[in-house]
């Protein structure tokens, strides 16, 4: 994909994957001349950052509650949460759109794009499983020292579930970063549209008229995929790194 985006002339054969010359950044320059990449990147950052913040905060609180707090209906609530995951988001688009746009009046706003994705049941499940894996002795020791639940969560549990945090951040990042359908429905204001929507419009409506349509389409795909790939490369070694038992003697 990267090589194809750098080709001067389209070459879709196997030989084209091993170019001997003729690479250029012209395809990227054409995107930048037709699309405000800086503004689109900023919009994607706001959209994705808002979703990440909501997912982590609500995921940690709900996951901790389902794993460590004892209350009536906890098992039923967890079962319902699992059932929610089998419902495709596409089935919910129309009712959510009516609620967000007509009921709450959040069309053409960042909040309208972010709110439907603030709570992620997958993130809740991941955090719950990690909190269940922590030794009970750590929580008992903290309770004996007089720590409340929020203090235990912040000082004891969170430092030990960094792999879960990184996993949730990466998995959550990929979704809103590549999401183009929902932002496109919520806002028609181009100054608010994230990168995925902007590049989808470019690839669908403009890339075909470029001097190298094949390279222009691949260049758009590279621009969209590069941040997610970079994030994975940076944090991949930390996914399995854990010090769960470091606070327990013996």
TrEMBL record:
PROSITE patterns: ABC_TM1 (PS50928). PANTHER family: ABC TRANSPORTER PERMEASE PROTEIN MG189-RELATED (PTHR43744:SF12), ABC TRANSPORTER PERMEASE PROTEIN MG189-RELATED-RELATED (PTHR43744). It comes from Nocardioides panacis. The chain crosses the membrane at residues 46-66, 78-98, 110-131, 152-174, 214-235. It is a multi-pass membrane protein. It comes from the Bacteria. Residues 41-235 form the ABC transmembrane type-1 domain. CDD domains: TM_PBP2 (cd06261). The keyword Transmembrane applies. One of its GO terms (biological process) is transmembrane transport. It is found in: Cell membrane. InterPro entries: MetI-like (IPR000515). This is Carbohydrate ABC transporter permease. GO terms for cellular component: plasma membrane. The keyword Membrane applies. Belongs to the binding-protein-dependent transport system permease family. Keywords: Cell membrane, Membrane, Transmembrane, Transmembrane helix, Transport.
